[in-house]
Amino acid sequence: MRDYDGTEYENVESLDGFAAVPDAFQRLWTPHRIAYIQSGQQPASDACPFCVAPSMTDEEALIVKRGEHAYVLLNLFPYNSGHLLVCPYRHVATYDEATTEEVAEIASLTQEAMRVLTATSNAQGYNIGMNQGQLAGAGIAEHLHQHIVPRWNHDSNFFPIIAGTKALPRLLGEVREEVANAWPA
Predict the structure, then answer these.
(1) What's the CATH code of the domain at 50?
(2) Is 90 exceeded by the pLDDT of residue 23?
(3) 12, 33, 16, 109: which is closest to 69 by C-alpha?
(4) 145 is catalytic
(5) Residue range 105-119, pLDDT digits in tens
(6) 147 is in an annotated binding site
(7) Predicted local confidence at residue 135, as pLDDT
(8) What is the pLDDT of residue 164?
(9) Which of 15, 35, 81, 156 has the most CB atoms in a 10 Å sphere around its CB?
(10) What's the rounded Cα separation, in Å, for the pair 12 and 25?
């Protein structure tokens, strides 16, 4: 085989047709993650994304349900397919700053989200929680948001443990449409 500069190598397999050759590897195609990688894992602007999202179309912001005091959207950088966030419209940082009405609607939307995800993706369990404050792991510490992560038997494997990588089998737009369409009116 010859290299690009003309150097000849012996006992080296040709790369011609490599993509068509069956092997033991499975490919993980996660094209939506390129935005996260290219942005350096930082928001594109200083504006709070949870304050900006409601001014966008549901499709652009990945919103699946709008309530009176809070709304639900897909996590742009999900742990699993269907990873949702419930956010109050009001810009508050911590749970104790939320009003009684906001807390009640966040709870109600969380319950509805679980029902919708169970119906659309057969989720077998959930991780639900809030990281409040940067020190506690909040990626966006300035705006309260609750995570709803659907889980399935054997959804954790060596990728997140060893390689720090999560395989997501569906595109965000597909998941948003399915979840939004399944949400009760």
Answers:
(1) 3.30.428.10
(2) no
(3) 109
(4) yes
(5) 999 999 999 999 999
(6) yes
(7) 83
(8) 62
(9) 81
(10) 19
Please choose, from the candidates 144, 83, 81, 104, the residue with its C-alpha nearest in 3D space to the C-alpha of residue 73: 83
- Residue for token pair 């990688």: 37
pLDDT of residue 32 exceeding 60, the answer is: no
Decide if 31 is inside a domain.
no
**Structural domain tally of the chain?**
1
**Is residue 60 included in any domain, yes or no?**
yes
Which candidate in 69, 83, 143, 145 is catalytic?
Answer: 145
181 appears as a binding residue in the annotation: no
Task: Examine the pLDDT at 11 and tell me if it is beyond 90.
Answer: no
CA dist 116 and 103 (Å) reads 20
For residue 88, give both structure tokens: 């109050």
pTM: 0.71
The answer to whether position 138 is within a domain reads yes
Query: What is the predicted pLDDT for the residue at 42?
Result: 52
Structure tokens at 57: 């179309």
Residue-level length of the chain: 185
List the domain range (segments joined by +) for residue 162.
Answer: 46-182
Residue 38: pLDDT band by 50, 70, 90 thresholds? low
Structure tokens at 47: 């504006």
The two three-digit tokens of residue 113, written as one number: 């989200």
150: enclosing H helix or E strand: strand 146-151
